[in-house]
């Protein structure tokens, strides 16, 4: 199988690779992503030592910068309550935490969740967090540019490997909301 983007040596249907995924991601892959059937989700094996965006793009193809997205976990606080939200933005952008996210959630304060919180509550590795398989009760904010990408590369739940799926599939995940200007 050839990946629809990038220069990957090993691309396979994600269903054939559930043993390489974290349990919550594997469960989500088995169920598909929104209206995209499970057999349209692609797994590409990658070197975990170059999982960070700049090194990854330099190794697997410069065109990936426009087609890849990062998923980060943000903690939004209001009064004594904390809401965790996942935000997906193009790899070359930053999440507008104190503007768009804070206002969208009606929070007094918003900041990136600690590594322990993000990994502990998602069951995923730091540097590999993906919108596929997040806790179903979390809000999931997706930048409109990502949702409009024909094929988008996201984490796989681990630093090794990535998932490729249509951008529209991310918009159909549980709790997803497409937001203009989420990435700045």
TrEMBL record:
YbaK/aminoacyl-tRNA synthetase-associated domain segment(s): 49-171
A Pfam cross-reference name: tRNA_edit
SUPFAM superfamilies found in the cross-reference section: YbaK/ProRS associated domain (SSF55826)
Source domain of life: Bacteria
CDD domains: PA2301 (cd04939)
InterPro entries to which the protein is assigned, alphabetical: YbaK/aa-tRNA-synt-asso_dom_sf, YbaK/aa-tRNA-synth-assoc-dom
Descriptive protein name: YbaK/EbsC family protein
Organism encoding this protein: Streptomyces yaizuensis
């Amino acid at each position: 199988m050839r990946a629809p983007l990038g220069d990957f040596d090993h691309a396979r249907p994600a269903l054939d690779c559930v043993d390489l995924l974290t349990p919550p991601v594997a469960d989500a892959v088995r169920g598909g992503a929104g209206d995209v059937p499970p057999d349209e989700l692609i797994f590409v094996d990658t070197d975990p030592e170059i999982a960070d965006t700049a090194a990854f793009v330099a190794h697997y193809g410069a065109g990936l910068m426009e087609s890849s997205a990062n998923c980060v976990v943000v903690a939004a606080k209001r009064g004594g309550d904390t809401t965790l939200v996942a935000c997906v933005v193009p790899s070359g952008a930053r999440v507008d935490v104190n503007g768009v996210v804070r206002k969208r959630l009606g929070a007094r304060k918003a900041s990136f969740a600690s590594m322990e919180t993000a990994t502990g509550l998602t069951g995923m590795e730091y540097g590999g967090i993906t919108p596929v398989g997040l806790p179903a009760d979390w809000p999931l904010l997706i930048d409109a540019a990502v949702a409009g990408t024909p094929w988008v590369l996201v984490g796989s739940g681990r630093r090794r490997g990535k998932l490729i799926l249509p951008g529209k599939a991310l918009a159909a995940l549980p709790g997803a909301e497409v937001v203009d200007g989420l990435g700045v």
